[in-house]
Amino acid sequence: MVPDLARVPGVLGRIVRRRYERLREAPLEPADVGAMPAVPSFYEALQAPGLSVIAEVKRKSPSEGVIADLDAAAVARAYARGGARAVSVLTEPDFFGGSSEDLRRVREAVGLPILRKDFVVHPQQIWEARALGASAVLLIVAVLGPLVEDYLREAEKAGLDALVEVHDEAEADLALAAGARIVGVNNRDLTSLAVDLETAPRVAAYLRARGYAGLLVAESGYSSAGELAMLRSHFDAVLIGSSLARQRDPEAGLRALLGF
């Protein structure tokens, strides 16, 4: 159940093919989810009243290079104090400077739900996420294509929520058909890395018009309280990465974005 990664274009294609190569170099061990401690619900955190912030632990990215030399646990604690309802932890090593150890440390540091932010190209990564203490995984429709429903079912077996990421209306249709309960609309085109803040509202309106009743998350490019205010009537949550990660005081930065 591995997607056809040769068809994934641009920067995203390079990332996911390298991710698969790493998995082949060091195969993951089977995980016994029954032996793992319970984790808080990502879905319930995003379902709470108001706009929920998913604050991201992020060291670098292909579009921006090095963002911050940070301590994952310390930053996660600052996010929790600042009002985040969930934490996203990048664990992709080659392009984003993340690691599984970052997720383990964040899980020990905070009681918030954790999204494992990575490029899932094999079902075993889902079980690894659960073993590391994640509450949710990222499933990118541009990567998984028609397999997104199979990966959603695998996440359910592992006891995880899934943030199903789309970039346009065609991908939104696939997420709908797969039965996604949480859909993230990414303003960043992962093939070119260009950001267009009109993408998330447009695709969100399309999803609602198609009868989607699940949770909606806006992703990428947000850096001001005004931008977040414009999301409140359309979205349940927003994922904020670079603009928070580069803050010298992440707690104060998040409070400013939330307006308190």
Give a written overview of the molecule.
This protein has 260 residues and is of the alpha/beta class. It has one domain: TIM Barrel (Alpha-Beta Barrel). Helix content is 43%, strand content 17%. It is built from 13 helices and 10 strands. The chain has helices at 10-25, 42-47, 72-82, 93-96, 100-109, 124-132, 141-144, 148-157, 169-178, 199-209, 225-231, 242-245, 250-258; strands spanning 52-57, 60-61, 65-66, 86-90, 114-117, 136-140, 161-166, 182-186, 215-219, 237-240. The strands form 2 sheets. An 8-stranded parallel barrel has the order 1-4-5-6-7-8-9-10, surrounded by 6 helices. Strands 2-3 form a two-stranded antiparallel sheet. The chain is globular and about 45 Å long. It starts with 9 loop residues before the first helix and ends with a helix.
Q: Could you provide a short overview of the structure?
A:
With 260 residues, the protein is α/β, with parallel strands linked by helices. It has 13 helices and 10 strands. The model has no long low-confidence stretch (mean pLDDT 93).
Number of DSSP E strands: 10
Q: What integer value in Å does the Rg equal?
A: 17 Å
Strand order of the largest sheet: 1-4-5-6-7-8-9-10
The biggest sheet, with number of strands, parallel, antiparallel or mixed sense and barrel status, is: 8 strands, parallel, barrel
CATH arch. level architecture? Alpha-Beta Barrel
